[in-house]
Amino acid sequence: MTEHAQANLKNLYRIFTVPEAPDSTLGSVDQALTKDLAGFLQEHIVAQGTSLEEIEKDFSTSAIPEDPTFVSEYTEFLKEKLVAQSVHTASPGFVGHMTSAMPYFMLPLARILMALNQNTVKVETSKAFTPLERQVLAMLNRLVYNRDDAFYAKWMHNSRSALGAFCSGGTIANITALWVARNRLCGPDGDFRGIAQEGLFKALKHLQCEGLVLLASRRAHYSLGKAVDLLGIGRENLIPVETDDNNRLDMRHLRNHCHRVQEEGKRVLALVGIAGTTETGTIDPLEEMADLATELGCHFHVDAAWGGPTLFSDSHRWRLRGIERADSVTIDGHKQLYVPMGAGMVVFKDPQAVSAIAHHAAYILRPGSKDLGIHTLEGSRPGKAMLVHAGLSIIGRKGYELLIDQGIERAQHFADLIEADPDFELVTRPELNILTYRYHPAWLQKITAQAPAEQQKTINSLLDQLTVNVQKAQREAGKTFVSRTRLEPSRYNGESITVFRSVLANPLTTDTILEGVLAEQKELVRCYPELLAKLRAAATIS
Ligand SMILES: *Cc1c(COP(=O)(O)O)cnc(C)c1O
Fold first, then answer.
1. For 240-249, what is each residue's pLDDT tens digit?
2. Distance between CA atoms of 147 and 139, rounded to whole angstroms?
3. What is the pLDDT at residue 23?
């Protein structure tokens, strides 16, 4: 062991008290971050275009470092190997995913959070963070259900209730909601002590049914698949419901599926409506779904992980009409509330619904206590609600309204740009701030539209290859970014095609940047002359 390492080991306890030197590299990184977050990211995320395989080489040893090292040395490694090769999600040209820029104040506040290191599983390790989290959940509950002051005064800090549950993201929020739905449908009844106690097999026997079923549009998020797996319902019993031309769940098909399921002797556990689908930002017919859920007497969940904050907007709130009739609603904090990764919420209409999943333990989570861990899936949990509280307080309802309104406007404008360019095809018009499109050169568009099915298929499959290539090349170049997905637009007889997907949530994205995205894509297309030649050949077959 080097002398330097020995000295370091001896002083190891100091990492819990004072940093090794005030002018260490960490210090400078830290200062740079606090002073100019955007500038820091711009300056330090530099290694674009390196392949993942190449990066894996920097993270390939499985040996745990034997000797301690100095923080400053380690920070050098981080800067070079991790920061430099991460993704600039905050870049205004990064319009492909749901992760965007963060308000500057989140960073220093996140440090306070880390410094306090509270554990919100129980009051004993979180104190004020418990009422704060309950308040945040009440605020979100009010955003959705808008009940009066007396209601919130009664339930907000009531130990026998929870207006929602805070968790690490939309996935856990959806699972929590469906867990509540399952345990309520299969709750204690006479001799049956409930599914939580006796398990699914006994529950089905008690209900005298062949299985439980969840119905959601085929555009639903994959977290629902995880949920039905985990809850013992089975992936086969998550029924993907057909969508209409606008990617909204089709009510006629939903009704048919429900009848069929009942004829098979199964029970509908829940209908799930989506407020802002991940791929196209579409909102399902929530009001009609609520009617059907009432008719069936089943749980109605709305997955508003993405679209929930649209409720802040006076001009767009109507789009989510019916959401207030949902039994539970998922809203992600780390999406359109602009909170750092790891913040999701589910709110419940019935403040006592969570008692269906209440869990008690001897040393904490005692009955009657206000421990949040009684009804959360996760155990130890950070006080992330503080950052949602910060956003709601600092940005305010009107601030979020502005962000939402501008995002929707920007998406409309981007759609107009795409439509105005004869070499692009807008595939889905944005209902909120997500749209899809593809490169489809003007000379080809007419031919594709009139081509017989076989020829159309050939052309589309070549266009798919072009879209994939351009999307990858654009990502590697690292200037701008859109994602890609596959959709089945009715104009191609439901045949699935690959499309670019753009999410317009970064308030710093300008029209010029969006024009640049399209210009870059047109440039990149020219790198694939052999595909273009094949397209020409496919177009001339008569
Ligand atoms: C993002 C998203 C989820 C999942 O949320 P995570 O935070 O990624 O776990 C669920 N549903 C919808 C509609 C989403 O957009």
1. 999 999 999 9
2. 10
3. 46
